[in-house]
Design goal:
Elements (H helix, E strand, L loop, with lengths): L12 E5 L3 H12 L3 E7 L2 H11 L4 E4 L11 E4 L3 H14 L8 E4 L10 H4 L4 E7 L9 H5 L3 E6 L1 H13 L3 E4 L5 H11 L1 H16 L4 H21 L2 H4 L3 H4 L2 H13 L3 H20 L4 H13 L8
Parallel strand pairs: 1-2, 1-4, 2-3, 4-5, 5-6, 7-8
Antiparallel strand pairs: 6-7
Helix pairs in contact: 1-2, 8-9, 12-14, 13-14
Bound molecules: NADP nicotinamide-adenine-dinucleotide phosphate.
Length: 310
């Protein structure tokens, strides 16, 4: 006899405290994946209403002072700014202390571990953290970012299991690190995301100094950034590296240092030198001439030079 198909397990209900960029994007993505998004919470009522409207009609909008009205959703996601998480955990614990059975609370911070949810675990909630390694600047375009993304998960066994199921349902991939490494892990994430944006902006400011208007400066840099990212998607960093460090062009590096110093881009000069040192390390891995690399290294260390490069 053919086996009867197992009935599909329904997805858990979820509420999201902190319905900003990530929280709203997750709420929309989870709703599309079959989760019942029961409530979204923001500080300002209008923000919560706007988020709820993007998620769907069945989602209620609450404010930070209304946590006692939060439905007993199986999973509560806290996606507030990092500094707020401990206060939210305390208030949620006070507001929901009689409704903890079988429920999980996950926060989405990259820098904090689930330890910050101690007030909730103390009264019986299962707690964990679920950090998507994606950049969401607009909640409406965010959900597409989640597909294929990596997520860092840690926490109680039950909470980590719920987090892994969320990742699977969002078609992502999960991995874990020890809780104590979360600040270092998150610093790495910032280097690969927010700092790349800051670096791009510095480069655009430098081009504006060359006479391009700010919009044009950004436009001409975008294909360069795109081609660099494409190289990184198909090769390791040492092979993807191009430019004067990969070629060992000492005089060009000296010209850069002089130009940055003379035009008063002191922050850019610091960043240029620090990243230059690392670019040299990468070039070494590719078997470049160690003598040239040594001279470039000395130029970076000893700047400002006494004479201007012609
Ligand atoms: N955005 C990303 O790309 C990204 C990626 C990975 C992880 N994360 C993590 O996700 C979290 C949120 O980041 P975000 O970029 O989405 O921040 P965000 O856009 O500033 O949103 C924060 C939300 O939290 C609400 N909020 C603030 N304090 C609150 C409180 N006490 N109670 C309830 N709601 C409160 C805010 O309400 P109002 O709107 O009313 O002020 C806002 O809706 C952070 O932990 C961040 O590290 C973000």
């Amino acid at each position: 006899m053919p086996k009867a198909a197992r009935p599909k397990k329904s997805k858990p209900s979820v509420s999201i405290i902190g319905s900003g960029r990530l929280g709203t994007a997750l709420a929309i993505a989870l709703s599309s994946a079959g989760y019942r998004t029961e409530a979204v919470v923001a500080r300002h009522p209008a923000r919560a209403r706007k988020s709820a409207a993007l998620v769907g009609r069945a989602t209620s909008a609450l404010t930070a002072n209304e946590l006692h009205m939060l439905p007993p959703s199986k999973i509560v996601l806290i996606a507030t700014p990092d500094d707020e998480i401990v206060h939210v955990a305390q208030r949620l614990a006070a507001a929901q202390r009689n409704r903890v059975r079988g429920r999980q609370v996950l926060h989405t911070s990259g820098a904090l571990s689930s330890d910050v949810l101690a007030p909730l675990s103390a009264i019986g909630f299962q707690v964990g953290s679920l950090h998507p390694l994606v950049s969401v600047s607009d909640p409406r375009t965010g959900p597409t970012n989640f597909r294929g993304a990596f997520y860092c998960i840690e926490g109680d066994v039950g909470a980590a299991r719920a987090a892994r199921a969320i990742v699977r349902d969002l078609k992502g991939r999960s991995f874990s690190i020890r809780a104590r490494y979360k600040p270092l892990y998150h610093a790495a994430a910032v280097m690969a995301s927010g700092h790349v944006v800051a670096l791009f902006d510095l480069a655009a400011e430098m081009l504006a100094q060359c006479g391009l208007d700010p919009g044009k400066a950004q436009r001409v840099l975008r294909p360069l950034l795109e081609s660099t990212v494409t190289n990184l998607l198909t090769a390791d960093p040492a092979s993807a590296l191009t430019g004067p460090y990969a070629r060992g062009d000492l005089a060009t590096v000296q010209r850069h240092l002089s130009a940055l110093g003379e035009s008063g881009f002191l922050v850019a000069l610091d960043v240029y030198r620090a990243l230059g040192v690392h670019a040299l390390d990468l070039t070494k891995k590719h078997g470049a001439d160690p003598q040239i690399l040594d001279r470039i290294s000395k130029a970076l260390e000893s700047f400002p030079p006494l004479t201007k490069v012609p």
